[in-house]
Design a protein that fits this description.
The protein has 10 helices and 6 strands; from the N terminus they run βαααααβαβαβαβαβα. It has about 230 residues and is of the alpha/beta class. The chain folds into 2 domains: about 10-20 and about 95-220, Rossmann fold (3-Layer(aba) Sandwich); about 25-85, Putative phosphatase, domain 2 (DNA polymerase, domain 1, Orthogonal Bundle). It has a 6-stranded parallel sheet. Strand 5, helix 9 (about 200-205) and strand 6 form a beta-alpha-beta unit. Helix 1 crosses helix 4 and helix 5 packs parallel to helix 10. The protein is globular and about 50 Å long.
Amino acid sequence: MPFSLKGKNAVLFDMDGVLYDSMPNHSVAWVQAMEHFGMQMTTHDVYLNEGATGHDTVSRISMRERGRAASAGEEHEIYSYKAGLFRSMPAARVMPGAREAIRKVSALGLQLLVVTGSGQKNLIEGVQRDFRGYIVRERMVTSFDVERGKPFPDPYLKGLEIAGVDASQAVVVENAPLGIRSAVAAGIDTVAVNTGPLEDSILMAEGPVLLLHSMTELSEWLDSCRL
């Protein structure tokens, strides 16, 4: 039986790579920041680690490159440097099809939430501006709101708590392997939207119920989900 939104009450959207075409900027910033601190991080690494908090990403790469986890001070210094590089870049555009998808989810009478591992305040503020009338800060989960980020289930469990629904009543839209793993671990049906360079098989290995390739394709799929 094809997957549908029947019986669902909330849709939880990731932000980077889903609502915004921001991953190319994140990739350049991460690669340059790690190089500045004497470590190597490839574009492929960035997309594989997407969804984790910045501090978790720093520690993961530090362990691989230096054989040890980064200290709290190092995590803060490296992530702050990366965030500064990101802020200096042109603003990321809204992902094509994202506004249409958000409007259609709202028209279906479903709750809208954003669950992101980001701590980039300019993006967190921007999503409330660019999706005004649909997304507010009180219905967002960011790296500031949980102790353990993706791939742990905590961010999506927090989203369920805010929405006041069970996992069976929600759907997640994610583009990142760690984000899909987080949502699946929380027991939520997850739609993968592969908007980056990773092979479909990497995303499918995390257990989504559906794989699409753009937010425009998601918007078109939503047309078949009239409740």
